[in-house]
Amino acid sequence: MTLAPQELENTASKYAAEAIKLDSQGSHSVAILSYQRASEALIRLVEIYPEYKLNRVYLERASAYQNRIKALQMANGILDDDSQTLKELNGVSDNKNHSNNKNLKSIVKTNSTLTKNINKSLYSIDNNHSSLNNNSSVDKNKTSDLTSEFENLIIKEKPLVSWNEVVGLDDAKRAIRESIVYPTKRADLFPLGWPRGILLFGPPGCGKTLLAAAAAAEIHGYFINIDAPSMMSKWLGEAEKNISKLFTFARKLHEKEKVPILLFIDEIDSLLGTRNGEVGGEVRVKNQFLTEMDGVNDKSRHSFIYVIGATNKPWSLESGFLRRFQKRIYVTLPDIVSRKDLFKQYVSKLNNDPSLKIDELAKLSDSYSASDIKDICQSVQLKVVNELFENGDPLNESEIPRTINLSDFKDMIKVRKPSVSLENVRAYMRWSEQYKAL
Questions:
Q1: Which long-range contacts (CB under 8 A, 24 or more apart) does 356-365 make?
Q2: H helices of 25-54, where?
Q3: Helix axes 98-130, 28-48, angle to 10 degrees
Q4: Can you give the pLDDT at residue 271?
Q5: What backbone torsions phi and psi does residue 135 show, to the nearest 5 degrees?
Q6: Which end of the chain is more exposed for a tag (fewer CB within 10 A), N or C?
Q7: Are 176 and 215 in contact (CB under 8 A)?
Q8: pTM to 2 decimals?
Q9: Chain region(s) in the chain for CATH 1.20.58.80
Q10: Strands 154-155 and 327-330, how do they pair?
Q11: In the prediction, which pLDDT does 109 show?
Q12: Of 258, 245, 247, 264, nearest to 155 (Cα)?
């Protein structure tokens, strides 16, 4: 895309975000102006580049903004009486500049023309499309589009993760087995149903994704990994549509394949967290998620669709969402036994000095996450390989890096500090004491 259409798209996005914010704050007349500007920018974009592949999307968004304008005008009695329109807009614009006042007065007259242009353009696009495909193929395309959106996120093959690779975290593993693994093996033992919403919270790099993947591997289900920020959108109405599409896709896949579906949503606080100055779009996203979760938990009591949310900031989640996650599991930093097992797992793949003691490494790495420990082992490996490249003959395959000793790990731990602070650990513990549900 060239610079000019990109600027028009950015302009439309800016005005749309401004309109949504004003709309949610009750400044409806000023919001109308911003919706109008966003709509005009999108229509202008379509007029300049009539062959651009996203034109239909732009026109649909412009139409949505126009519909919102009409709704606000009707709610404020604007459409029924032009004199009332000018009176209200003059009242709102007394404290605005003259150009804003002039633009506001022209909105009622231009809406009809813009709407006609949008409908005409949409009809033209639809007409061209129908000349290539009949109605049945269009429906198939819609279904295939929905599938293609999420197909690349599905891990249909059994994840190459076993419970043995999830070091420690015994409480978390037990809670997930109770909720996911056991019902899939003996559903008749659960007359009251079973938990389908599981929240994994704790410091980053402690195995939340690994837990979900291990569960999917044991039940031979499909693992759909979703990054929550990617579900959000700068366009009005798009984010909640993405949520609806995701759950619809999961339900259809479950019905078709007859296998358990694990919907893993990472950074779920990005979708459900509280924010200052929250606008209408974010509220609608949350409401849509609540609706979908209620459908998973209540209307499909004996289905095997699970929603696993992971977050590093559980305190940002609203209490209304916590009820939908019947299991709330604290994924902690590894204790000394777990750290010993982690070092044993990683160090066994390296060329070690016989004097290297795993117990000593576990003591030195207090407060380090599982990911930190892997990074330390990797950094030590890079250190000795670097020495070989600088001082030896790396192209000679008979030469190998020197053995790794305890001092190498001590040096690396000095320059690689834990990624999780003690203050954060205390915050997780306080939240866990208040809200955990194993």
A1: 356/404, 356/405, 356/406, 356/409, 357/406, 360/406, 361/406, 361/409, 362/336, 362/337, 363/336, 364/409, 364/410, 364/413, 365/339, 365/413
A2: 28-48
A3: 50
A4: 77
A5: -65, -40
A6: N
A7: yes
A8: 0.63
A9: 3-132
A10: unpaired
A11: 47
A12: 264
Give Cα separations from 264 to 148, 298, 396 (angstroms).
18, 19, 46
Helix (H, G, I), strand (E, B) or coil at 133: coil
The domain defined by 3-132 carries CATH number 1.20.120.50: no
- CATH architecture of the region 336-419: Orthogonal Bundle (1.10)
Which residue, 7, 12, 2, 10, is CA-closest to 52?
A: 2
Question: Sheet holding 197-201: strands in order across?
Answer: 154-155, 222-227, 261-266, 305-311, 197-201, 327-330
**What architecture is the 154-333 domain classified under in CATH?**
3-Layer(aba) Sandwich (3.40)
Give the pLDDT score at 72: 77
Please identify which residue in the block is written with the tokens 């899939």. 184
Report the alpha-carbon distance of residue 266 to residue 218 in Å, rounded: 21
Query: In this structure, what is the dihedral angle of CA atoms 375, 377, 379, 381, given to the nearest 10 degrees?
Result: -150
Among 267, 276, 270, smallest CA distance to 312 is for 267
- 14-24 pLDDT, tens per residue? 787 777 777 76
Please list the residues that pair with 266 across neighbouring strands: 227
| Phi, psi values for residue 273, rounded to 5° | -75, 155
Question: Does residue 376 surpass a pLDDT of 90?
Answer: yes
Characterise 22 by phi-psi region: left (phi > 0), alpha (psi -120 to 50), beta (else).
alpha
Which tokens sit at 14?
A: 């800016």
| Three-state helix/strand/coil letters over 370-387 | HHHHHHHHHHHHHHHHHH
Q: How far apart are CA 295 and CA 298, in angstroms?
A: 5
Range list for CATH 3.40.50.300 in the chain: 154-333
CA distances from 302 to 105, 130, 191, 197, 247 (A): 57, 41, 9, 14, 16
CATH 1.10.8.60 boundaries in the chain: 336-419
How far is residue 433's CA from residue 93's CA, in Å, rounded to a whole number? 52
In the structure encoding, which two tokens stand for residue 314, read together?
A: 């559980």
Handedness of CA 230, 232, 235, 241 (dihedral sign): positive
